Amino acid sequence: MVGARSRGAAGSPENPSIALRSKWAALLALGIVYGDLGTSPLYTLQAVAHALGGPFTAQTALGVLSLIVWTLIVTVSVKYCLLVMRADNHGEGGILALMSLVGVNSLKGRGRLITAMGLMGAALIYGDGVITPSISVLSALEGVNVVTAAFKPYVMPGAAAILIGLFSVQRFGAAKIGDAFGPIMLIWFMVIAGLGLTGIVHNPSVLGALDPRHAAAFLAHSHGRGLAVLGGVFLCITGAEALYADIGPIGRGPIRLSWYGVVLPALLLSYAGQTAVWMQKASTPANPFFLLAPHWAIYPLVLLATVATVIASQAIITGVFSMTRQAMQMGWLPAVNIHQTSAKAYGQIYIPAVSGLMMIATVGITIAFRSSDRLAGAYGTAVSLTMLLTTCLLYRAMRHIWRWPLIAAAGIAGPLLVVDGGFFCANLLKIVDGGWLPLSLAMAIFFIMSTWRAGIDAVRSSLVSAAEPADRFIAQLEQGKIPRVAGTAVFLSRTAQQIPSLIIQHVRYMGALHRDVIALRIVFEDRPRIADAERSEVEPIVASIWRVTIRFGFSETPDIPAALAALKGLDPAIDIANAVYFAARDLVTPKSTASWIDRWRMPVFAYFYRNAVKVVDRFHLPAANVVELARQIEI
Hints:
The chain is α/β, with parallel strands linked by helices. It is built from 24 helices and eight strands. A six-stranded mixed β-sheet has the order 5-6-4-3-7-8, with helices on both faces.
């Protein structure tokens, strides 16, 4: 998710993809978007063989290959490239952006089911994010087993070491090496296409798999193995969500061009070549991907595959960082420290808390499962459900955003739901073998999201209900009964009150008020970016007090001092550069009348609320000019 952006007055990007909309954008997309999809040939057919439980026959081989071919065409080429990528939210993609696009962002009211789908889809991506690096790196290193079994005991430790190293360098950002990702992945796709072609030359009959009747015949005569095989086949499209998530920094055109021109042909050739070779060596237990390579090329191929899987892992890590920022600014996760690791590439961010938790989970999974074959049982469950939920949200976009007639929307979404539902049911068979892992993680993330939003809503309601009438305070100001001292004060408020209670409490305890006062409310909109003309509103209240609202999109980095400096409508004499910022640091406690549900949910909220990042870090405030006032709130 790399994209060069210029910074506007508010410290946020003005256009997410100007620098990438060039002739090189399609090449960059190979490294940014297609790492996961591009490395799926390393483990897909191996997982299918495990599900089959026996050697390939010619008929079975053609049926499986036909399933893979048409899965890539229907799900990626048609669903994502032609349909889902049309549903962008002002140029941004991803399931949270899609949820916002269809007009829902609350678990209350009529849209709560759609919101729940979007949140669960986002939560499932976290589950996928901790498994993808593990299975990718393991499958790459296991290639050495084709040559010798001597290195087999070192595959798992080696994979764990690579993953620890990968997460350790996240703090430095991938911007410096990001430009090399595209060329490396281009080499990868050329290599797997060439290897696949050599396999096809030895057994051209595999080209018959282009006929979808082979897939239908296999499912019809699979005798109960069909669902299990579908669970393995599904691995060929894990990573397809990245096509939609990355349209903001990359753009639809380059992503589609890369898919149709490079990625799809290379994947089809690789899978066909693997199938062709495996039909001849059905009894060989090794990974069919590495069977394509001559003996002398195994070690170089393992090295290239390892680099490709590291790129794929970097892409999913960056994607999780980006989605965390979106969820945080849409009000679904507590604020965490976000470090911008590149001044030019807006998508290059580092979130220490998320990176640390992902590293622990990913390395733990690698040690627990030890091999890509075993890990394939846990992989795919989360992604299949995410794709199913994406189709449901897409149907709503067809009906409510694009205004398609019911027959057209149902005619397209219906078959896609059947395909997605079939894959989801197939992956349910994996729950006992490890599929419970990403689903459990997703449920935990969903619980945190819903609890956080419920707690924030309760805090705001408590602040509004406890607010003191502002009329008396304003009258005292007009009568000069409140002493004014030199300087500028900015009071951050969570409510839309004309005079926030924080200002009234400050005067009550301090006995005076600054000469120039700004009551500032920060609003994160359900859009990725806000135009400069819509950024702020300034309303004069009384006696050099202004009510200011500043808006940010969910993909922007909020910079309050820069946004205030660009304000129009304030007295030019106000000294914004030396302003003192006042914010509340709340201690949340449950009410004695709280329901039993709130009594066990609110402590969870209180923990995250207490440990959320401070305003000085979240809004780029000068630390020496920030004063936090403690107060207790019952919810």
